[in-house]
Specification:
Blueprint: E1 4-10, E2 13-19, H1 33-43, E3 51-55, E4 58-62, H2 64-82, H3 88-92, H4 97-117, H5 119-139, H6 143-164, H7 167-172, H8 185-190, E5 194-197, E6 203-205, E7 212-220, E8 224-231, E9 237-242, H9 250-264, H10 276-297, H11 304-316, H12 323-328, E10 333-338, E11 348-351, E12 355-359, E13 361-362, H13 365-379, E14 389-396, E15 399-406, E16 416-422, H14 429-434, H15 440-451, E17 455-460, H16 466-476, E18 482-487, H17 494-499, E19 503-508, H18 522-529, E20 536-539, H19 546-556, E21 563-568, H20 572-582, H21 587-590, E22 595-603, E23 610-620, E24 634-641, E25 646-649, H22 651-654, H23 659-666, H24 675-699, H25 707-728, H26 733-756
Helix pairs in contact: 1-2, 1-4, 2-4, 4-5, 5-6, 9-10, 9-11, 10-11, 15-24, 18-19, 24-26, 25-26
């Protein structure tokens, strides 16, 4: 059977749908002469088509720009079919009948046959025909013959000019030298449809960009290929992903499509989403059995490993989140943005190395609706016109993520999503040192302040690294102390920290944006922690009136436990303005803040790159009455130097003017009234962390900067502090570092032996 055509109006597009389900021909303009001819022939009868969609085992979609290329050819074909320009009568011109029939047959073959299946070939053949006629003209001495040839050449010129004005010919001209009829290489350069297998909704632009410069390539998992391109004459960077589901054989596509249709009859109930992990396990087992049965029934030879891979794909596109899950497997991806309207806009990501990138993935409206439904059920939170915002956390295989969704009427064009990937391991200060977010001295200072149980507010704009930095602060708290975390969306690595031996308890409270009746208000949650015993308090993000309760906790727990939180603010005074003037925290309560850490994304001079940096570590002094800015209530301890690209200590820090540091020192017998001793403590903390990072880089062993080893290093530092104090009667920082360094060298030897063994 042949191709079945239909024209549909979908949104703003007029789509020519070409059904190849019962056709043996390839559903590809670029690969098949037959397909191109049939499509151009149909376009000649259909006006205003803006999109081509082919269906077989997969869906192939040609966008407006690609559709326009063949529509122009179709328009020429339609007009020439109606004109008498190449009729026998016109070719005869009254005195050229002897040549007319031969010329007519040549042009008829080019226009009625070659133009449809190979427009480039038609153009080349016309030019070659014109060249031959001009040679004949030069050789002829017959006046009638030269007249007729001139007449024929004028008709050829007309046809050549028609084609030369089309975008297809304009684009192809640089590649036409020595063109062979039937060669489809140039068409493959030009036509690159987005591809969507039957069993999924997502569309993927599989072809590499024509003019892109490859700058990186790597593999995620076993067989997801990532290629990063810098696009010519474009500031965008393309993150091109080719997952395994787009590289399957037709037999495997058929298995997956059939399996999905069968499983669609057994959709999970709302109650199943209470335990998504268990639900995935059930669907995996069912899907595996189903694929095994289908492959056996259809006599498709398939290995056990292939069955497992197909099952993973099947689960991903039934109860999972499709290609979003594949993207999140890449540890370099930090954020995923999916903008509305769906089906037209590619997914954007923030990459750890290449910053903002556009991907080759286009999600569809059906898929967006599916994600929204699943998120409603997983979170237990509404998403409708009355509640157009949904914030929740999502646990997927091997990764967790924070999801934000907006819908109508807040977003007039419908659903839009943001996925923030949580690192599956806690961040550490040495990791941030390696990424140059902080330097050794800043790490040493913060370590001293954390051990001194100060109160912290970590501030910054969105994507500045606030939550990640808060995670590194928790890692610095000694595991002997209890920690309570409070979040409306679970981002902090509490399970991982618990596995590392931390005495840590998490509490989930209602979001100020999407509060539901079943969730506890954040303010109540924070106040409840005060009745849970002696604990450090970590608040994931301060958004609203819970700030009042947080500062209450700071005042109650002052000098006893670490209290820390994150908030959107770009400066110390910005923090004051936000919590005092906007939220209503009393000025006297604000003074309970000891240290403000400002994190900021720093842009490169060309504007193409962003780097996360801590730009200030500021102390809140206590002497001011009305306005901390006017009354010099903020003392910068370290400030970012753009030329050095690092934090540098201020004169106030070097000279020991910090009241907070003096307060900590006053509680330590060796340090009371001895600023030099405090400074040496900070420096030795900086030094051992610097040694750790240097060795990790030298050995290319960045696992040394992860939480397990960093915690071990910190623990040993505290142990050597105690040992040296007992042995010498004082905190001898030089000796403490020597003891730690000796232990560190021994530990490195052990790591080397373990790796080689």
């Amino acid at each position: 059977m042949d191709i079945e055509f239909s024209v549909e109006r979908i949104g703003e597009d007029t789509t020519l749908k070409c059904d190849f389900s019962n056709s043996s021909h390839v559903p590809s303009i670029e690969d098949s002469e037959f397909t191109m001819a049939k499509v151009i022939e149909r376009l000649a009868k259909s006006h205003g088509v803006t999109k081509l969609v082919f269906y077989q085992k997969r869906e192939y979609e040609y966008d407006y720009q690609q559709t326009l290329l063949v529509s122009e050819i179709a328009s020429i074909y339609r007009d020439l079919s109606k004109e008498d320009k190449i009729s026998l009568a016109n070719l005869s011109a009254g005195r050229c009948s002897i040549y007319a029939e031969s010329w007519y047959n040549k042009l008829k073959n080019i226009i009625s046959n070659l133009l449809l299946k190979d427009p480039l070939g038609a153009y080349v053949e016309l030019k070659r025909l014109r060249r031959r006629q001009k040679i004949l003209f030069e050789k002829s001495n017959d006046e009638n013959e030269t007249f007729c040839i001139s007449h024929f050449v004028s008709i050829i010129d007309y046809l050549v000019q028609l084609l030369e004005n089309t975008k297809l010919i304009i684009i192809s001209k640089p590649y036409l030298a020595g063109y062979e009829l039937g060669n489809r290489i140039i068409y493959r350069r030009i036509f690159n449809p987005t591809i969507k297998p039957d069993f999924m909704y997502t569309k993927l632009m599989s072809a590499y960009p024509k003019d892109g410069e490859e700058i990186d390539s790597y593999t995620v998992g076993e067989d997801t290929e990532i290629t990063v391109f810098r696009l010519n004459e474009n500031v965008k960077t393309l993150y091109h992903i080719m997952p395994p589901e787009f590289k399957l054989s037709e037999e495997k596509y058929e298995l997956l499509d059939t399996a999905r249709n069968i499983m669609a009859e057994h959709k999970p109930a709302k109650a199943d989403f209470v335990d998504p992990q268990r639900m995935r396990e059930v669907f995996f087992n069912v899907g595996k059995d189903l694929i095994e049965e289908l492959s056996s029934y259809r006599k498709v030879r398939i290995k056990e490993k292939e069955i497992l891979e197909l099952t993973k794909i099947l689960v991903r596109y039934t109860v999972g989140f499709g290609l979003i899950e594949v993207l999140l497997q890449d540890e370099e991806i930090q954020d995923i943005s999916i903008n509305s309207p769906m089906g037209r806009i590619q997914i954007f990501i923030v990459h750890g190395k290449y910053d903002d990138c556009v991907t080759n993935i286009i999600p569809t409206p059906q898929e967006a609706e599916s994600w929204a439904s699943k998120l409603r059920m997983i979170s237990g939170r509404p998403l409708d016109e009355a509640n157009p915002i949904l914030d929740t956390e999502l646990e997927l295989p091997g990764v967790s993520t924070r999801v934000s969704v907006i819908n109508k009427p807040l977003n007039p064009t419908g659903l839009a999503f943001s996925f923030r990937r949580h690192r599956d391991k806690p961040w550490t200060l040495p990791l941030f040192m390696n990424y140059k977010m902080i330097n050794p001295l800043a790490a040493g200072l913060l370590s001293f302040l954390i051990d001194g149980t100060r109160t912290f507010m970590i501030c910054g704009t969105r994507s500045s690294g606030k939550s990640s930095f808060l995670s590194s602060v928790i890692v610095e708290i000694m595991r002997r102390y209890r920690i309570i975390t409070i979040e409306d969306t679970l981002e902090l690595p509490v399970p991982q920290l618990r596995k590392l031996g931390f005495n840590i308890q998490s509490m989930k409270v209602a979001s100020s944006l999407t509060q539901t009746g079943s969730e506890v208000d954040a303010t109540i949650g924070i106040r409840a922690t005060l009745r849970l015993g002696d604990s450090s308090l970590i608040v994931g993000e301060v958004r609203s009136t819970e700030a009042v309760a947080l500062y209450e906790a700071m005042r109650v727990g002052a000098a006893a436990n670490v209290v820390a939180g994150t908030i959107h603010a770009d400066s110390p005074y910005g923090l004051y303005d936000r919590v005092v003037n906007d939220i209503g925290v009393p000025k006297t309560s604000f003074k309970a803040t000891d240290i403000i850490v400002i994190a900021s994304p720093i842009k490169s001079a060309d504007g193409l790159h962003k780097y996360r940096r801590v730009t200030k570590i500021t102390e809140v002094q206590k002497h001011w009455e009305e306005d901390p800015l006017l009354e010099h209530g903020f003392m910068d301890l370290m400030k970012y130097d753009a030329q050095k690209d690092e934090l540098v200590p201020t004169a106030d820090l070097i000279n020991g003017e910090s009241e907070v540091l003096k307060t900590i020192a006053g509680n330590i017998s060796d340090y009371a009234g001895n600023w030099d001793a405090v400074w040496q403590d900070i420096l030795v903390r900086a030094k051992y962390r610097e040694t750790l990072v240097e060795e990790a880089v030298k050995r290319n062993d960045f696992d040394m900067l992860e939480a397990p080893f960093v915690i071990l290093c910190n623990d040993m530092f505290h142990i050597f502090n105690e040992k040296v104090k007992k042995r010498t009667g004082k905190l001898d920082h030089k000796l403490i570092y020597q003891e730690w360094e000796n232990w560190f060298k021994q530990e490195l030897t052990k790591r080397k032996i373990r790796k080689s063994g």
